[in-house]
């Protein structure tokens, strides 16, 4: 192993913008169970399925239409 490395000619990671960020979020059990069941039918992990759904909402700029009671 070298004592020092020269990174002056290194290229930035082109996939760095696509990296996922871990967060904590509170989701109702019924909602999680829905995505878990759907994910077992489709064959992908439920967290990936939730991410894909949220990404689709963000890309299409969906807005929730609701009123507080």
Gist of the model:
By secondary structure, the protein is mostly helical. The protein is 41% helix and 0% strand.
Describe the protein in words.
The chain is mainly alpha-helical and 69 residues long. It has a domain at 27-59. Helix content is 41%, strand content 0%. The chain contains 2 helices and no strands. It has helices at 29-42, 46-59. Helix 1 (29-42) crosses helix 2 (46-59). The chain is elongated.
Index terms:
single chain; mainly alpha; 69 residues; 41% helix
Q: How do the helices and strands line up, and which of them pair or pack?
A:
Elements (H helix, E strand, L loop, with lengths): L28 H14 L3 H14 L10
Assign the structural class, choosing from mainly alpha, mainly beta, alpha/beta, alpha+beta, or little secondary structure.
mainly alpha
Radius of gyration: 20 Å
What distance lies between the first and last C-alpha atoms, to the nearest angstrom?
A: 65 Å
Low-confidence stretches: none
> What is the number of helices?
2
On the 0 to 100 scale, the average pLDDT is: 92
> Which range does the strand content fall in?
under 5%
Label the overall shape: elongated
Helix content: 40-55%
Q: Mind describing the biggest β-sheet?
A: none
Query: Which H/E pattern describes the elements?
Result: HH
What's the count of strands? 0
């Amino acid at each position: 192993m070298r004592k020092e490395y020269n990174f002056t000619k290194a290229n930035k990671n082109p996939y760095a913008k696509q990296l996922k960020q871990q967060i904590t979020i509170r989701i109702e059990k019924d909602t999680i169970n829905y995505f878990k069941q759907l994910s077992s039918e489709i064959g992908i992990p439920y967290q990936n399925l939730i991410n894909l759904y949220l990404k689709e909402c963000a890309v299409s700029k969906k807005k929730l239409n609701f009123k507080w009671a």
